[in-house]
Amino acid sequence: MTLPAAASPDPTHDELIRIVGCRQAYHKESAADLVVLDDVHLTLRSGEIVGLLGRSGSGKSTLLRIIAGLLPPTSGQVLWKGRELDGPVPGIAMVFQSFALFPWLTVQKNVELGLEAKGVPAAEREQLAENAIDLIGLGGYENAYPKELSGGMRQRVGLARALVVHPDLLLMDEPFSALDVLTAENLRTDLIELWAERRLPIKSVLLVTHNIEEAVLMCDRILVFSSNPGRVAHELSVPFAHPRNREDPAFRQLVD
Ligand code: ADP
Ligand code: MG
């Protein structure tokens, strides 16, 4: 008799993240535990930009921290390329809402930080950081300090710091929400263009946002997150938002 194959991790070759039945409860001293995520399931594959759209307080940042390996879930499974994730991995990088730059370090040094942690030699660090800074449109600002830059430029530094490690998966936690409308639009447009031209050294993006227009314009799949507790309640595909479909009349009608 042949037994059915065991349910061992056996992802298709392009599967990056698989989350199965994830739950997160925060302990509260004087009240019942706060259940922030319950029964979250999701899969992220190589090559896609996925949006995670949900209200403030619904647990989106919590879920991102879990995927980044910064927070072990209360229960449930998080698989990175088919293996249980048990801490940060080099293949995942994150961009934060509030940039999270070190004010006492130059742009160049802020960007090099991710590489230092990986033990990349100094000369190579310098070159990789310069490439990332150029790519994101900040060439010439290597020796500036964060306080000398505008919000949009600071978030470009945050992006360069994430891109410099050439992660397979880029996590972005409301990366444009601290920026004014025009600055956010410039940065979004630049990112969409770099992605379409395949110049970003990444394979996949998970973009957290509470801006539905942004999700529709940037993502080819949108996970709609419910609140109390957070879970993936709906999934929408936006076939025309994919860069290769940007000339589609349906997409042009939306953006022109
Ligand atoms: P979102 O990013 O969708 O706004 P968060 O994941 O930041 O949501 O927060 C979800 C809920 O969990 C909020 O009610 C928040 O106050 C609470 N929370 C977040 N982090 C912690 C923590 N470290 N300890 C306790 N409660 C937390
Ligand atoms: Mg958040």
From TrEMBL:
Residues 17-252 form the ABC transporter domain. The keyword DNA-binding does not apply. Keywords: ATP-binding, Nucleotide-binding, Transport. One of its GO terms (molecular function) is ATP binding. Belongs to the ABC transporter superfamily. This is Nitrate/sulfonate/bicarbonate ABC transporter ATP-binding protein. It comes from Gluconacetobacter tumulisoli. The lineage of its organism: Bacteria, Pseudomonadati, Pseudomonadota, Alphaproteobacteria, Acetobacterales.
